[in-house]
C-alpha cells in the first residue's frame, strides 16, 4: 500500500552550504538552539553508514539485552532523528517529550551539531563506513525513500556525491570533521567494517563507553539479536512500518556487506573515484577497509 510517485514533493535548502531538508532549514534556529542535557546520548553518522545497526545495539545495551523491551516501538520512535521534520512532529519535539536519559540520532556534520551538546559534554557515538559502499547504499536508499530527492541515474548520482551535492553534504568532510573532534570530546568512533568483522568486540566497546557491565551472557544475546538477518526480519528495525519507504524498489535492510560497490562501480568510475579520494583524504589519518 505504497503511494510512491515521482517527482517527489520534497524540497531542500542549505545551512552554511550543507544541503538539508527544507523544513529543517526553515526552523534552523530552533534546532541550533536545542538544549541538550548532560546524560543525553547521540548516535551520529553520515546517512547509510550503519546508523540503525548502531542504534539497535545501543538500545539493547540500555535494556540489558531484553529483546522484548527493545521491540517496544520502531527504532525511529525509540531514538528520535534530531533534525528531521515530519508533517506532524519534529525530531526536537520528540526528544523534548522523552524522559531522560535520552538517546537520539543525527546525520549533521560536526560543525552543525547544536553547541549545547558540546557545552554539556554529552557522550557521542559516531559510526563511519567506507565511502564506496556508503555511496552505493545511499543511492539505493534515495531510490526507495520518497522523503528524499530522486537520485536520478547511477551515473548522475555518482557525480553528485563526488561533488558533495547530496543531503547532509560531503561524506569526506563529514567523516574527517567528526574524526578530528574526537580529540577534544568524548566520541566513540566506530567503523561499519569492524562491526562486520567482529561484532562482539565492537559491542563490548560500546558497552564500555556507556559504562555498562559487560556480562558475557548479555553481550552474547545482543550479538545474536543484531545480525543482519535478525534485524531484517525485525519489524522494529527494518523500517517496514515507514510509509515513505518503498521496499519493493529496494529494501531498507538491503545487503549489509562490505564490497557491494564492486557490483555498481564501472572500472572507469572506480579509477576516477580513487584519484579524487586520494586528494580529499590526504589531510587525515583516517583509513577505511573497502574489501570484503
Ligand atoms: P546496505 O544498503 O549496504 O545493505 P543506515 O542505518 O545508516 O541507514 O544504514 C543502512 C545500511 O546498514 C544498509 O546497508 C543496511 O543493510 C545496513 N545494516 C543495517 N543493519 C545491519 C546489520 N545488522 N548488519 C549489517 N549491515 C546492516
TrEMBL record:
UniProt record similarity statement: Belongs to the sulfotransferase 1 family.
Enzyme class, first EC level, given as a word: transferase
InterPro entries recorded: P-loop_NTPase (IPR027417), Sulfotransferase_dom (IPR000863)
Transmembrane annotation, as ranges: none
Gene encoding the protein: SULT1C4
Subcellular location(s) of the protein: Cytoplasm
UniProt protein name: Sulfotransferase
Domain of life: Eukaryota
Amino acid at each position: 500500500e505504497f503511494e510512491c510517485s515521482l517527482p517527489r514533493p520534497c524540497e531542500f535548502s542549505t545551512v552554511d552550504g550543507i544541503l538539508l531538508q527544507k523544513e529543517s532549514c526553515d526552523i534552523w534556529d530552533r534546532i541550533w538552539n536545542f538544549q541538550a542535557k548532560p546524560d543525553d546520548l547521540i548516535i551520529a553518522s553520515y546517512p547509510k553508514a550503519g546508523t540503525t545497526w548502531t542504534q539497535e545495539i545501543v538500545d539493547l545495551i540500555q535494556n540489558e539485552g531484553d529483546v522484548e523491551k527493545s521491540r517496544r516501538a520502531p527504532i525511529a520512535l525509540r531514538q528520535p532523528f534530531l533534525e528531521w521534520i515530519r508533517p506532524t512532529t519534529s525530531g526536537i519535539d520528540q526528544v523534548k517529550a522523552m524522559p531522560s536519559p535520552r538517546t537520539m540520532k543525527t546525520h549533521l556534520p560536526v560543525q552543525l551539531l547544536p553547541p549545547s551538546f558540546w557545552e554539556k559534554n554529552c557522550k557521542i557515538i559516531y559510526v563511519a563506513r567506507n565511502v564506496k559502499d556508503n555511496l552505493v547504499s545511499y543511492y539505493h536508499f534515495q531510490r526507495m525513500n520518497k522523503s528524499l530527492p530522486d537520485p536520478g541515474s547511477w551515473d548522475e548520482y555518482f557525480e553528485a556525491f563526488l561533488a558533495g551535492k547530496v543531503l547532509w553534504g560531503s561524506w569526506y568532510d563529514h567523516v574527517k570533521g567528526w574524526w578530528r573532534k574526537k580529540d577534544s570530546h568524548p566520541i566513540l568512533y566506530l567503523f561499519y567494517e569492524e562491526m562486520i568483522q567482529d561484532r562482539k568486540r565492537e559491542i563490548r566497546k560500546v558497552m564500555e563507553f556507556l559504562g555498562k557491565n559487560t556480562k558475557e551472557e548479555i553481550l552474547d544475546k545482543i550479538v545474536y539479536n543484531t545480525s543482519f538477518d535478525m534485524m531484517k526480519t525485525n519489524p522494529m528495525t527494518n523500517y517496514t512500518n515507514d510509509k515513505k519507504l518503498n521496499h519493493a524498489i529496494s529494501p531498507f535492510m538491503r545487503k549489509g556487506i562490505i564490497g557491494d560497490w564492486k557490483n555498481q562501480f564501472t572500472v572507469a568510475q572506480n579509477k576516477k573515484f580513487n584519484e579524487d579520494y586520494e586528494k580529499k583524504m590526504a589531510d587525515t589519518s583516517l583509513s577505511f577497509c573497502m574489501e570484503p
